[in-house]
Amino acid sequence: MSGHHISTDKTLLGVAAALLVLTILTVGIYYIHIPTPWDIVTAMGIAVVKAGLVALFFMNLYWDERFNSMIFISGLAFLGLLIALTLMDTLFRVETIPGF
Amino acid sequence: MADHSSSTTHSQFFQHHFVDADQQFEAAKMGMWIFLATEILMFGGLFAAYIVFRLWYPDLFTQASAQLDTFWGAVNTVVLIGSSLTVAMAIKSAQLNQKKNIAINLGITLALAAVFMVIKYFEWTHKFHLGIYPGEFYAFEGIAHEKANVFYSLYYLMTGLHGLHVLIGMGLMSWLLWRSLKGHFDSEYYTPIEMTGLYWHLVDIIWIFLFPLFYLIE
Fold first, then answer.
1. What is the enclosing helix (H) or strand (E) of B42?
2. CB A58 to CB B197 under 8 A?
3. How large is the ipTM?
4. φ, ψ at B189 (rounded to 5°)
C-alpha cells in the first residue's frame, strides 16, 4: 500500500540517536553490575527495543504492508518454537550435561 | 497504486510480467522478507546453541567473556548503527531524486562496513595470538574451565557468520555504488537499494543481540 513511504531526516536521525543512547545505556548498566538474572533480562530487553526500532523505522515495517510484518514475526515465532522445544529436552534430562 | 502506474512503468528496469512498477517493487520486497525469515532461522540455530550452553556452563560464559574487549564491541555497535542510518539515507535520497546523495550515502555505508571488519580482524588476530582458537585447536591457558573452547567455538561461529554477512553486504554496496554512479537509480526505480537496505538492517539487528550476549556478560 505505502511501500514508497519517504522517511524524513528527523525520523531517521531520531531513530539513530535513540539507538546510540540505548547502546550507551546497555554498556553503562553492564558496569553497575545488576545481580543475575536481571542483568541478562535488562540487556536483552534493551536489545529487543533497539531491534524493534530498526525493524519499524529503518526497515519501514511501521508504514509497510502488514503482511511483511507477519513474515518477520512468523520467523521469530518459529525460532521461539525451536528454542522452547530444545530447552524442554536439555533442561529436564536426568543427566543434565552429557559427558562428551 | 494503479492510478499512477502509467507514470511509473517507464523505467528501463520494469519487467513486462508485472502489472506496474509498484507491483514489481512490492513483489521484490515480499520475497526479500521471506529470505530474511530464513536468515533469522539460520542464525537462530546458533542462538539456540548459545542458550543451551550458557544454561549448562554459566561460570564459563562469565569467565570467557572477560577476554572480549567491551570497548571495541561497543564501537562496532555504533559503527553498524551509523551504517544502517546511511543506508536509510541512501533510499531516501533515491526517493527524492537526489542522485548524488545516493552515491555519497552508499560510499559512507561501505566505509563503515570496512571499519567494522577491520576492528573484527584485529579482535580475531589478537585472540589467535593468545592461542584462543575454536574447538580442538583451543590452546589458551588463561581460563580455568575445561569447556572454555565451547564458548569460543560459539563466538567464532556467530561473529564469523555475521562477519560473512557484512562482507556480502560490502559486495552488494559496491555493486549499488557502481550502478548509482551510472545513474540507474531514481525515485521511479530504487528496488536494489531498498532490498540491500533490508538485508543490511537485519545484519545490524543480529549484531545488536550478539554484542550483549558475548561482550556484556558479568
1. helix B21-56
2. yes
3. 0.93
4. -145, 110
